[in-house]
Amino acid sequence: MTQAALEQENKLIAQEYKELLRISYQTLTDDDKKLIRSAFEVAVDAHKEQRRKSGEAYVFHPIAVAKIVASEIGLDAVSIASALLHDVVEDTPYTLDDIDRMFGETVARIVDGLTKISHLKKDMNISQQAENFRKMLLTLNDDVRVIIIKIADRYHNMLTMDSMPEHKQVKIASETLYIYAPLAHRIGLYNIKTELEDLSLKYTEPEVYYDIKSKIEESKEEQQAYINAFSDIIDNSLKQEGLNYYIKGRMKSIFSMRRKMKTQNVGFDEIYDKFAIRIIYKSDAKNEKFLAWKIYSIVTDHFTPNPVRLRDWISSPKSTGYEALHITVMGPKGKWVEVQIRSERMHEIAEKGYAAHFKYKHGDQKEQGIEVWLNKLQEALENSNSNAVDFVEEFKLNLYSKEIFVFTPKGELKSLPKGATPLDFSFNIHTEVGMRTRGAKVNGKLVPLNTTLHSGDQVEIITSEQAKPNQNWLDYATTARARAKIKSVLREEKKSVAEEGKEILRRKLKSQKITLNEDSVNKMVTFFKLKTSLDLFYRVGIGSIDNKMIRDFASSYSNAFISFFKNRIRRTPAPEDIDKEEITSKYDLLVFGKEEEKLDYKLSQCCNPIPGDDVFGFVSVSEGIKVHKKNCPNAISLQSNYAYRIISAKWVDSTQEEFKADIQLTGIDNLGLVSEITEVISDNMHVNMRNLNFSTDGGTFTGRITVVVKNKGILNKLTENLQQINGIDKVTRL
């Protein structure tokens, strides 16, 4: 570079620095400015030799990221300094110790977190990607600012991605949609989330992006005219009330238009709510809510509201802190328009997310806001022993979910994702409450645990020391937190059954003169077509691999000498991962409806479902039940046109399936007999009872009990134990 060009560049760098201080959202003290100045000098010095792909000096990137952090996200001086230094440790001679010494522990910790994230392996396949995401979220434990600066870094990279090779653009854009956009949404950075989505679309589906973009450009004037027409109608009424306000229109983002076109299967012109109108008013804290409803009443005086579409986020703000009143009204020319009413403070929170919250809080409270939010994120991360893809999917499940607000019996308000059940609510209160849930009352009425809750419900959880999670709970719970906890309890429980199973197997094999060792276990796993040794022990423990099956194995094992030669010709390799610490499901049986009945079915040709897929049954006229995948191309039309013929279906593990059996008891009636019988069934044998019916006649009694058991072995043992009870004469299975 020539001397003149260098001087010009240095001038630009200095200008950028001044700009950074000028646009900072938080008020900077002299100490803050000193901190930012020294971070800036270190960044300029550290990156002096580096250039970006586009050819400009590398230091423009950290400055740009710091500007996003300072003005668009509105964070403090520590964050601005950390943003300036975010690439220093990774790419330059400076070490973390240098940063610690010069800027203190907090900045060093944030820079370290950012360095860790960028060191994550950049592999293409999804589970690696998910694993990276999980690690990244776990660095949140250190400091949430790490993630926020990382989002700003990604945002700037997306803005300057034109000079990269195409395959990298697509990879980075997809990763942004998969991870960073949902995160920005969760933090309440709605503007950045929208930008990230639009920029990603520009690289993943360029034709679509530019097509929608040009159509939006074309309709700009028409849109402005519409906003003016809308404003003119209510302007006078608002002015008469002496309100200080302005009205703005906001076009939906390109990405959300694309999503609408896809889900509703319509063209650009057919989307009816392309934009929203915002009324932003000035107000002191005291009158804020009052004025919002006043504006609401003026708007609805002039335009007919859609009563179903009222959203009051002022009385109960979203968990991201978002506050506003949303109404959809029939505007001029018979078009539905969404009107968002918010004060300047609410508008700032909507634009800046958490940072704006702190601006309106003082002293200790400033810190608490971020604490509360950190704890929420923490919960999603706490149970990170599930596999990474599940973790990401469940985390996202809770990120984008709409919220409902329900009350505790004492009237406290709790926010839960839409679709939550009483079981989710109980885990939301406390893990211990969740684990001990026995039943639930909604609005004073006893309801099943899988009832869907609605905003405004009052929920009371009934607990019991004896209650504990069972497999069905996974069908009842929808939130990531509840599901993770239930899974881990069930895993532990299955492991303890497997421990017992291992001992039983050791004894049974011993009687067949076989030692339980690696070889015999591997052969048994293969023999019973299972995946892991734990599967084998568990199935012996619950009795689904019974004595006869073990004898069959033993005879084939004893003839091993003969089969040894046969096997030389066709060696059966031992399955990999045989010692994995997990009990897998054998998806080999389809059950239908709420009662999980076994019915005849055919797998449909259009989508060829395989065991384990999400499926549903469709009752056809001539061919009985046809099973389709939930994402089958024909699913939507079947579900909308023939909803009454759809039955729910799911794959289960037939060895863990439960069966109903009726037992009849006869004997001599004596005091306390019923409690003895139920004690044997439910306490000692841990078998569930569904039905109980006793009648006495002249000192004798007859009883019928419906029990739910996993297999015949358990049922036989149960009848034996019942036979032992004093006073019982006969126990028969009906």
UniProtKB/TrEMBL annotation:
PROSITE patterns: TGS. It comes from the Bacteria. Residues 402-463 form the TGS domain. Pfam families: ACT_4 (PF13291), HD_4 (PF13328), RelA_AH_RIS (PF19296), RelA_SpoT (PF04607), TGS (PF02824). PANTHER family: GTP PYROPHOSPHOKINASE, GUANOSINE-3',5'-BIS DIPHOSPHATE 3'-PYROPHOSPHOHYDROLASE. NCBIfam families: spoT_relA (TIGR00691). In eubacteria ppGpp (guanosine 3'-diphosphate 5'-diphosphate) is a mediator of the stringent response that coordinates a variety of cellular activities in response to changes in nutritional abundance. Belongs to the relA/spoT family. This is RelA/SpoT family protein. It comes from Maribacter flavus. The lineage of its organism: Bacteria, Pseudomonadati, Bacteroidota, Flavobacteriia, Flavobacteriales.
